[in-house]
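User: Please fill in residues for this 206-position structure.
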């Protein structure tokens, strides 16, 4: 990503929050045959001190990515939207795009069958827990274990990350308030992120 000091997100806890709130991730691998990209849900490992994500690949994506043989890039995309210059003051005519984005780097550790099944159970429970009539893999262990064999689980300990919280910090307070008011009409999640950030503090949150 472009190096923009005002928008750098350097706090690992803020990156963890971004992962929690936006678990649909893009995995990019520099394989021997070229770049390969896939999309999978991720779960933050809350027991790990460093940023660690858990996920799974459906076969044969694991082979296509040469999973576990090299570093991968995982892209987490938070709320984002077009920012019209019509929301600025007079004479300021260049629009932009506000966003929260994190690039996570690390080499995946492949999980064994039992650990993969435990991870899939945990992942399912995480997303089903607050749904009416939510299900668990434990309701049909024989059937779900059979299906789990078509997946490869992974744990990725993030060695480094590059993250941005670009939320109009370069604008005056009155212009930011106007932008946020317009954004809130159709993208309340992005407006909420704008409200958390203090202008002029290099992306620091309130």
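Assistant: Residues filled in for all 206 positions:
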């Amino acid at each position: 990503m472009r190096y923009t000091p005002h928008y750098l997100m350097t706090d690992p806890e803020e990156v963890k929050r971004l992962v929690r709130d936006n678990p649909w991730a893009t995995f990019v691998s520099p394989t021997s045959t070229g770049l390969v990209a896939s999309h999978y849900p991720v779960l933050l490992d809350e027991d790990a001190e460093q940023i660690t994500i858990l996920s799974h690949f459906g076969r044969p994506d694991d082979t296509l990515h040469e999973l576990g043989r090299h570093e991968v890039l995982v892209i987490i995309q938070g709320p984002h939207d077009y920012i019209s210059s019509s929301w600025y003051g007079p004479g300021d005519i260049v629009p932009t795009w506000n966003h929260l984005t994190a690039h996570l780097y690390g080499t995946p550790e492949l999980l064994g069958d039992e650990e993969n099944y435990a991870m899939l159970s945990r992942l399912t429970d995480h997303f089903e827990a607050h749904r009416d009539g939510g299900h668990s893999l434990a309701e049909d262990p024989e059937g779900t274990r059979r299906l789990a064999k078509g997946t490869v689980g992974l744990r990725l300990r993030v060695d480094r990350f590059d993250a941005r919280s670009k939320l109009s910090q370069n604008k005056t307070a009155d212009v930011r308030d106007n932008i946020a008011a317009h954004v809130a009409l159709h993208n309340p999640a992005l407006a909420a992120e704008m409200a958390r950030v203090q202008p002029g503090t290099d992306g620091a949150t309130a």
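For context: Residues 85 and 94 are 6 Å apart (CA to CA).
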